[in-house]
Amino acid sequence: MGAVLEAFRAPANLRVAARLLGWPFAWLGLKGDPNLPPVTRALTALGPAYIKFGQILSTRPDVVGDELAMQLKVLQDKLPPFPRSVAMRMIKDELDVPVESLFSEFSEPVAAASIAQVHRARLAETDQEVAVKVLRPKIERDFRRDIDAFYFAASVIELLSPASRRLRPTDVITHFEGVVLGELDLRLESSAAAEFAANTAKDAGFQVPKIQWFLSGRQVMTLDWAKGLSANDIAGIDAAGHDRHDLGERVLRLFLQHALRDGYFHADMHQGNLKIAPNGDIIALDFGIMGRLDEYTRRVYAEILFGFIRKDYRRVAEVHFEAGYVPAGQDIDEFARALRSVGEPIFGMDASRISMARLLTYLFEVTERFGMETRTELILLQRTMVVVEGVARSLNPNINIWEVAQPVVEEYIKENIGPKALWRDLTRTARVLARFGPQFPQLAEDLLIRQTSRPLPQPEPTGRRAVGWFTLGAVAAAALIWALGAV
């Protein structure tokens, strides 16, 4: 494998790792489909979880080299399929209806990935074209085997390298396991697709196919057929006259909007899961892996991005400390200086070399020095940002990710951080308090009884008396809010 990576001019550190893993990969490369390229063949022999890793690398030619990235793209949707007859039997078992009575046409597999494969079909009743996704047989058992191996590797790493524990390898695998297990139930994917479609219904230039609920279950999902070109088909996109520069910017902009505005984003946005419609819309497919961010995390993430865009490294450092990402005992000024060493070299590069992946790599090195632990809630976000940047660069190699990100982040900051957001937060807090309105009179009475029924002790410290009256005042204010709301 090392020789293969050298031929593809992959980076030196990746070639060294490949040489260390050379014997296992050479052996695994003898298994599987002989028509696949060597590295791709080895990853498919390892199992579905490793294929997921290869899919991520396929979006990063700047990391693994152009030729190897092209080979790894096979992992996105061109893996060896399982027989059509097996898929039809699984559909019958799942829906309890013969396939022939549901579909007037049911094709051979048109795409096959690590988890499932897709068939093109036509509904018998309406003649509508649909895509039918069917899980691979025994896929849950295969994933469980891979996950067990990952847990073992994580425990060995933590045992042999105490310094690695801040990265929380076992927690990362647990997070990955939860994501993967959710992907193995297509009912959850159908629900995710419906929620994502509702969130993005008004997004110009973006589509989510409609789910056919009555033809979906745990192992089968049916949705409207998406007409268009794969985002992999650069030549076809050019021939169709689409503006690739606009498409690249739109992919990145939409991802940021979904992550910041909705807190719910497509977390597997490689080229195999995107199509370009005849009218130029971007169509998202495969909703097995979705990311979710709570509102507080979104604000932290936006402030960090905004700080880097504005080169306000002091503010970026403060946000890390405020969020508890960096231990409180560290020096905030030193951390800000280290962040400047990350940001300035990147902003000095030309647009084609500015990379979110490079920023995350440098930031990782800095946070290691300052004892920052891995944040599992941000793993999917960071991974997806790297993948989306790779997709955007495949469409527009000269894209400037900061220029594209700036208006999206600024709009979020304007709406969610500042006086308008403060008033909205206070209003939301008042509504929560108002729900407890019927209990406020009793709470106030109990508090007064406790205050007046105490024996005559030594004079209470001023601070404690102030706290008591503050509590009573808060209850009274909440009761007033409830009363006003009821009028």
Biggest beta sheet summary: 4 strands, antiparallel
Overall body shape: globular
How much is the radius of gyration in Å? Answer: 27 Å
Instruction: Tell me roughly what share of residues is in helical segments.
Output: 55-70%
SS field, number of helical segments = 24
Approximately how much beta-strand content do the residues carry? 5-15%
Q: What is the first-to-last residue Cα distance?
A: 74 Å
What's the total number of strands? 10
For this entry, what is the oligomeric state of its chains?
single chain
Strand order of the largest sheet: 1-2-3-5
What structural category characterises the helix and strand content?
alpha+beta
Average residue pLDDT: 77
Please, how many domains? Answer: 4
Q: Which parts are unreliable, with pLDDT below 50 for 5 consecutive residues or more? A: 1-30, 462-487
Account of the protein in words:
The protein has 487 residues and is of the alpha+beta class. The chain is 60% helix and 9% strand. The protein contains 24 helices and ten strands. α5 (48-58) packs across α7, α15 runs antiparallel to α20 and α18 (332-347) packs antiparallel against α19 (356-369). It is globular.
Key structural traits:
disordered C terminus, 60% helix, 487 residues, globular, four-stranded antiparallel β-sheet, disordered N terminus, 24 helices, alpha+beta, 4 domains, four-stranded mixed β-sheet
